[in-house]
């Protein structure tokens, strides 16, 4: 489970970094920045839905913010 989440975060960060590179190189003349940011939003939504599904299936457990002794 941790590996999937870590890979998703790396994909999100990679997409964000590529959007920055495209923004600097193209200076707004192409859609590559928009496409990279669209991928970032899609990956973020997919990660959120996956975490909700994993909680529903019982693969992960919520512990709350404060743990009782």
Explain what you see.
- By secondary structure, the chain is an all-alpha fold.
- The chain is built from 2 helices and no strands.
- The model has no long low-confidence stretch (mean pLDDT 89).
Secondary-structure map with pairings?
Layout: H1 2-26, H2 32-57
Helix pairs in contact: 1-2
Helical content, roughly?
A: over 70%
Through-space gap between termini: 26 Å
Q: Over all CA atoms, what is the radius of gyration?
A: 17 Å
Count the helices. How many?
A: 2
Strand content: under 5%
Structural class: mainly alpha
Task: List the main descriptive attributes of the protein structure presented here.
mainly alpha; 69 residues; elongated
Compact description:
The protein has 69 residues and is mostly helical. It contains two helices and no strands.
